[in-house]
Amino acid sequence: MPPNPPATTGPEPHLRPAGPQTLGILAELIAQEQPVFAMPSWFVTTEAAQAGHLISEFVRELGVRPADSDSDADYRSFFANSRYEALHGAVKLLRHRAAATSATHRGRVLVLDPDGTLTRRADPLGEGPDRALVPGLLSHATVAELGAALRDTAVCGLLVRAPERLDRSALDAVTELARRARATGARIAVDLSDIAPDSPAVPAVSALRPDLVVLGESLTGHEVPFGAFTGTHDTFAPWTTPKTGFLHSNTYGGNTVAMRAVIARLLPRWDAGAPVHRRLAEAAADRRATLDLYARHVNPMTVRMHRKLHGALNVVRAKGSRLTVRLDSGRELDLVDGLCGAGLGVAGHNPTDALTEVVRRHDPARDHVRELEGVLAEETGLPRAFPAVSGASAVESALTLARLARPRQRRIVVFKHNYGGKTLVSLLATAAERTRAPFGPLYDDIRYIDPFTPHAVDEFRAEVAGGAVALVWIELVHGSSDAYAPIPGPLLDAVTEGRTAHGYLIGVDEVLTSYYRCGTRFAHHGRLPHVDLMSLSKALSYGCFPTGAALVSQEVYDAARATNPRLVEELRTHHAHALGAHFALQAIAQVDALGLPEHVRALSRTVRTGLAALDAGPRGVVGRRFAEGLLGRLEPRVPGPLGRFVDPEGEWMTYALIVWWITRARAFVVYDVFLLPLTATEREIRQVMLGARRLSRTGPVRLLGRAALFRLGQRLSRRPAPRPSRMPAKPRSTT
Fold first, then answer.
1. Could you tell me if residue 135 is inside a domain?
2. What tens digit of pLDDT does each residue of 266-310 get?
3. Rounded to whole angstroms, what are the CA distances from 192 to 70, 161, 229, 354?
4. CATH code at position 502
5. Are 224 and 88 part of one and the same domain?
6. Each residue of 39-49: pLDDT tens digit?
7. Of 32, 270, 536, 711, which sits 20 to 30 A from 69 (CA to CA)?
8. Which is it for strands 667-668 and 332-337: parallel, antiparallel or unpaired?
9. What pTM was computed for the model?
10. Structural domain count of the chain
């Protein structure tokens, strides 16, 4: 057993202990079997629509107005899990919005960063903006430095952090800089992460007239991980097409806990008779009003999909391994959850013990964070834990620590088909060119090697032979892209062999694959004997709360701390959260208490048998297939002449497959990936596999025809769906 690491002193955690209001929100959600997570990006809840509307009104009252007009405007928000995730999202949007002129500005963004926290994360080794982990951020601590940089450099954006703290002369100077930057085509963003929910108008906001506003955990009382970036629909235009609507995404953003926490703190700004109360009540009473509000204030592309699917994605209840969706006709379907809420909770949705053992027994004074570090050390052999609020933030911390631990080696090797996240650091571990392309400059000393080519081992050995590689980062089983197999064993053997000879670190991404999702406790067990870093998140969330961790060896910790002790301690403390750690501890304890090792082995056999029974004929819509444990993929295809007109990855096939799974197989599978609940019954797994077998025997014409008939039937039978009011509860004084 690894030793329990000694306590260290450092910065205070940014997140605060959960109070009665947050615990009350969780208690209500769990008791009422309301989904906290259902699916990344595509989950539309009344609360998310309401929160988007309130944030739009909030930033308007802070003084935000479009730069080219004095009229009011609707504002659209992207929900994240922290101010840093939101800042990265804002930079990505600034770059994408200015893509047409990238030859001039090369994606550079000028940043006023008085406390240096964003700068340290972007450039952990102080190598300068061209060689930083997040290149292209020209960060300065003072307004004078900012002005000098703007004179000499073309930029696509100006980001001003904490403008509310500027004195009059500094604000005047920054306002003039914003005017000059805007005259060159740059857009303006302000970071108001510390603005209180009851804040009056902010003169700095009125003066700067930003295109984007970054908000943070202050809107949840710092008790629930949260971030958002908010701007006009024009600013969000690059992400308002079917192909780009989900280019930026995350798993936990917009989760119901955070949304209710935001609503509870923002709503008291307005008297009971104010128009916002009427809009929120309309959304609570009618699904169509919810979709209208969500399209206006969050993501119109998500709403476009929901409307085309007529309620097939309208999740209204979640318990254990089951979900209930309500169609536009009012009909409700009880489904096996084939995505496990994408939060991949160990015990499914809203487990009873999450309420009885965590929410009702939570002691904010207890050091759950320290306890979790010790438990994870026993689980993984990696004694140092860096708390995270998402899988992306866990990956980001791991990559940052690897760079600090190997400051002389810059290169990172990532295998193609890997998915690491969408922040500007975790994006490096996302080996999909289309996902990265609009957001450069990105860290360039990355080598992406296709693990499935015949010469992959030779290519890898040649890459590491020169001694320039600091880290080999591996997701052993992929849930996305074009991979239908785990990373081949001979390649993993070569990675292990080269570790000692060349001194690089091995990191594994277990965000998707940990705790028997792929049949073993961790996907790398039996495949990689030594790892130095690991990212975890989804299983730790227990389906209830956004949390995660980056784990590192003592050697990595010591080396990273010797390079940049201040940043290491910030990473160790900033996202530490006792309630998140408490949920993670309960999740890990339940793995063995529920007998998951044996249970998953039995269910995995059923999955393998089911896949083996799929029709392999040339006319069906299922091509390649694979499964590891309870994670699997089925390749959509359109054989025959119809394939010249229908893209198997396009909208028509996406909608047709979703309709098939939900209405015919009665399984919540939203395209080509299934992530089956660890606590599902044998009967439920057989039901999903039977659905897959029937799908494999279905031709594309029949599949598309069924989808068309479903849509027609829903249109003809559509009626207002009655539902109880879900106005946000008043703040509670007790749990």
1. yes
2. 999 999 999 999 999 999 999 999 999 999 999 999 999 999 999
3. 21, 7, 10, 33
4. 3.40.640.10
5. yes
6. 878 899 999 99
7. 270
8. parallel
9. 0.94
10. 3
